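Discrete fold record:
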Amino acid sequence: MGIFSSGHYFAKGPPGPEPTNTPLRGYYPVSSIASPGLPVAPQKQNGFTLIELIAVLAVIGIILALVFPRITGFDEHNLKSDSERISSLLIYLNEASATKKVYYRVWFDLDSDRLDIEVSKTGLEYEPEPETTFRIIRPKSDLEDIVTPGLGRVTTGKAALVFGPLGASEPVAIHLKADEKKLTVSFNPYTGKAAVLEGYIDVFRK
């Protein structure tokens, strides 16, 4: 039997299941379907974009480049390390020239803070010596001057020190600095010993 209301006839049937909030298969809530022609609100993104990460890393790199070299004691550590390496190098070349019966020539380039080492069997014609790895003074450490009895005080250009089978040609004092800190590398070819001294020391002053 049906129900008639306002000109419409409704069929009366058995009661159906209770309504639920779960959408039927193939049907979706109206709010989840974008209507054609209507703008869709952009979804909020979490995290950083690649460009933002690159920008942050670049800023961190600039800060480290400015701050790290200025850390207290860092420059002094490099200065002392370079001085000790030069001291060890002079001792090694002095001993190696006597043992191998060859000549070594060390060029101190005060303009570029670099050491170039050459070797010769006769002491007349030299070629680059590939075995020794120490070549360049570290950043923030500078060769201030080279002093020998024969050359005097050399502050620019290049100065050479020769080691032969009978030892180095003459004593040498090498002065290095980093900001206000200064060290002196003194080498005596007659004893074969080298020392690293605090400050700028004129070892040849009488």
Remarks:
- DSSP finds two helices and twelve strands in the chain.
- The helical segments are 50-67, 74-100.
- The first strand starts at residue 2 and ends at 5.
